[in-house]
Write a structure and sequence with these properties.
Helix content: 40-55%
Order of helices and strands: EHHHEEHEEHHEHEEEEEHEHEHEE
Shape: elongated
Largest sheet: 6 strands, mixed
Distance between the termini: 47 Å
CATH topology of the largest domain: Rossmann fold
Structural class: alpha/beta
Strand content: 25-35%
Strand order of the largest sheet: 5-4-3-6-7-12
Oligomer: single chain
């Protein structure tokens, strides 16, 4: 037999203390009566008083206490089948890998800040399924919906603009890919989290909104970057420079919030501008908690059976017997 709460065994120390008190009281009563009268007179004054009844009552009280303490220790015996229901939502993170995400107006860069947010957000999840999309002018599924959070974490670390040859930003491509991944998911609890600087080169916001509403996808958009913006680093061999326009001027990439705000507002989601990582994460997960959770999985497992009820029933029975056998004091053959 095992015990679920063995720390409650400390109360067992009360048992020898009570036994000691019972012996002390018995001896004290005996000595007091002997001082009061001789043996013949005592038998006439207290005809129903006996050592056996005294000890039987103490045995009932101490046994009741003992079984009560054993019940508190929550004994485990045998096995029982337990059904475990896992609830959660389905979340797909969409990471913008367009070249503008390399801009360093956010330290260390927009892309690294976005990857950090996804990584820490996944670390806060429990029973939710997670998927990962990377996108630019087109979108690609890096991981289907899964509970393997460590796999998601590893995929995030390796994400870079070099993974996508066709540059640009298309939100409709993201939502189309997300809808495919959500195809067999429950009708509620579907969330797409888009991390981007908002530069929609394809002007696809209206198509994206229409598709999101049709497939019942909630969208949280997280804007990475600043209104002031910054140049876009470009590597050419071992040299690094900045992206230039056709007139030879340095391109300054700025955070474009309008399209991201429209996406979030039109799909009952929320737009978050990322200023501080932890604050943004708190707001994101605050929104997650408002969504309806679906039963993701029901599994069964065998666990040890709790049988404290048996010990508690014995304790109550002993205490009940003790109350029924309470002595009435007789003095001079009169009930007191």
């Amino acid at each position: 037999m095992d015990w679920a709460q063995p720390e409650n065994s400390v109360w067992l120390l009360a048992v020898p203390i009570i036994i000691g008190l019972a012996i002390y009281v018995h001896n004290w009563r005996k000595k007091t009566r002997e001082k009061f009268a001789d043996a013949n007179l005592l038998s006439r004054l207290f005809p129903l008083s006996s050592d056996s009844s005294y000890w039987w009552k103490n045995i009932l009280i101490i046994s009741g206490l003992l079984f009560s303490i054993l019940a508190l220790m929550d004994p485990l015996f045998g096995e029982e089948e337990v059904k475990i229901k896992r609830e959660g939502i389905d979340i797909i993170y969409a990471l913008d890998l367009s070249n503008s995400m390399n801009a360093e107006d956010v330290v260390p860069s927009r892309l690294e800040r976005a990857k950090k947010i996804i990584s820490e957000s996944v670390g806060r999840l429990g029973g939710d399924r997670v998927g990962l999309i990377v996108f630019a002018a087109d979108a690609y599924s890096i991981s289907p919906l899964t509970n393997d959070y460590s796999a998601i974490q590893s995929y995030i670390q390796t994400a870079s603009p070099e993974l996508i040859s066709q540059q640009g930003t298309s939100f409709s491509a993201v939502i189309t890919k997300a809808a495919e991944m959500f195809e067999n998911a429950p009708t509620t609890g579907k969330l797409l989290v888009i991390l981007s600087d908002g530069e929609d080169n394809e002007n696809s916001v209206n198509r994206a909104i229409e598709l999101a509403k049709k497939t019942n996808i909630h969208i949280v958009t997280m804007g990475i970057g600043t209104e002031k913006g910054g140049p876009i680093p470009v590597k050419e061999g071992s040299f690094e420079s900045f992206k230039l326009d056709r007139y030879g001027e340095t391109v300054i990439s700025k955070l474009e919030e309008n399209s991201m705000q429209s996406l979030a507002k039109s799909t009952s989601g929320v737009y978050l501008r990322v200023n501080q990582t932890q604050q943004s994460l708190d707001r994101l997960h605050g929104y997650l908690n408002t969504l309806d959770k679906e039963v993701q999985d029901i599994s069964t497992s065998k666990d040890k059976k709790h049988i404290f009820q048996v010990f508690l029933a014995i304790a109550l029975f002993l205490i009940f017997i003790d109350t029924l056998t309470t002595d009435h004091k007789l003095f001079n053959n009169k009930k007191q």
